């Protein structure tokens, strides 16, 4: 993999990533100044980001003011699914980009209107690779792992799991049907990211949803006070 | 999304993609000259690419000579899972790349040894975005959609579905448990890629595996003769 084309990708990528990181740092400062806690939610497509957030929003919006930015290559389906739960929601269509970038968040935050928010949730594009290297100015990054994806995903996509402060195992209602090896999954997550909090949820049955909402509220209070 | 950083990504990307496409065309010619039919399998992480291929390989290798190249960011788990089914298997660790590129296939084909093969199967990195724009010199591209991912994925990731000649719905044994809307999924696939053959499989129960193997054998014979 030492061809010149790869070398060029990496060289150019570095400059762009540094620019993204600089803007992300400025966004983080600005969000902190405004007292807004920012959550970046990442996962493979279909791991249940939107369903988890839809089930969590009402628990959050009864206590704090929440805004949501959702990224997808195409469609505004997720924004529609997340509306009506007490939070303003804005969809970004990335038109081919496999991740959100800090400049997209800057524009989206302006459009959404973040003044007065306590919590800004960013639902990233469904992808276990590209979002890992794009800081969005968030306070915490949370990666979802659905029981249907297989216990080895933390080992196969270590970068994104390593950069996460929490991992949410989703769709636990399907664990038996897919013969999910819970101990193995937790061992794999912990081996890649020992510091991450691990939560287990089922948006369908509601199991673990309150604990997940409580985790976010506690993290928000600890950061913003 | 009109910032200069985005413009640079696209401009540089275009040159690299053109270089990739040129090499892919040469690989396609070379594979054709050698009578090797090439399949590029793409999907989201955890959609069941490896399990589907593991269950299919024995049916194929009893009739034709098959080689497999597997791409992952890290680990050689998939190559291990695919070995012992009568095909030579080579793992590419992309170390951060969210897709395989034609130059990786060129190197891997040299290492694997493709002389005498009838079918070369490439299992791409689990990703519904990046592999879409990287031609690997394949004859057909097949995208998998597991019933657990949701029926809307073809609409949310149209590029990769549009570029596929077949779509394999996987994990159909879980369809009832996840309340999979089969008609809606097929409608969505057909709306994005009307020409694609749609197959339905369960690696766990074996449903549809023979039809999928037959599809590949027929496509291989039609192309290579």
How does this model look, in words?
The structure is a homodimer of 225-residue chains. With 225 residues, chain A is α/β, with parallel strands linked by helices. The first copy, chain A, has one domain: Rossmann fold (3-Layer(aba) Sandwich). The first copy, chain A, contains 8 helices and 7 strands; from the N terminus they run H-E-H-E-H-E-H-E-E-H-H-E-H-E-H. Chain A has helices spanning 4-33, 49-61, 77-82, 102-112, 153-156, 158-162, 182-192, 209-224, and strands spanning 37-42, 66-72, 88-93, 119-123, 140-146, 166-170, 197-200. Chain A has a 7-stranded parallel sheet with strand order 3-2-4-1-5-6-7, with helices on both faces. In chain A, helix 2 (49-61) packs across helix 8 (209-224). The radius of gyration of chain A is 17 Å and the shape is globular. Chain A starts with a helix and ends with a helix.
Structural class of chain A: alpha/beta
Overall average residue pLDDT of chain A: 92
Provide the spatial order of strands within the biggest beta sheet of chain A: 3-2-4-1-5-6-7
What is the CATH first-level class name of chain A? Answer: Alpha Beta
How much β-strand is present in the residues of chain A? 15-25%
Count of all domains of chain A: 1
| Share in helix of chain A | 40-55%
The CATH topology assignment of chain A is Rossmann fold
Largest interface: A-B, 49 and 48 residues
Q: What low-confidence regions of chain A span 5 or more consecutive residues with pLDDT below 50?
A: 1-12
């Amino acid at each position: 993999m030492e061809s010149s084309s790869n070398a060029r990708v990496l060289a150019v990528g570095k400059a762009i990533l540094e620019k993204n990181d600089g803007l992300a740092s400025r966004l983080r400062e600005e969000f902190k100044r405004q007292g807004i806690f920012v959550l970046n939610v990442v996962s493979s497509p279909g791991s249940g980001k939107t369903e988890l957030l839809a089930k969590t929003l009402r628990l959050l919006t009864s206590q704090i003011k929440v805004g949501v930015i959702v990224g997808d290559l195409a469609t505004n389906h997720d924004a529609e699914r997340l509306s009506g739960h007490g939070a303003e929601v804005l969809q970004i269509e990335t038109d081919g980009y496999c991740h959100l970038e800090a400049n997209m968040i800057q524009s989206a935050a302006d459009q959404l209107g973040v003044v007065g928010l306590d919590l800004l949730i960013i639902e990233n594009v469904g992808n276990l690779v590209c979002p890992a290297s794009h800081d969005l100015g968030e306070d915490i990054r949370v990666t979802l792992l659905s029981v249907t994806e297989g216990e080895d995903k933390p080992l196969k996509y270590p970068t994104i799991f390593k950069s996460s402060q929490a991992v949410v195992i989703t769709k636990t209602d399907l664990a038996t049907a897919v013969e999910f090896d819970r101990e193995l999954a937790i061992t794999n997550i912990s081996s890649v990211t020992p510091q991450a909090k691990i939560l287990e949820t089922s948006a369908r049955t509601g199991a673990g949803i309150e604990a997940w909402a409580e985790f976010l509220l506690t993290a928000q209070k600890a950061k913003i006070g």
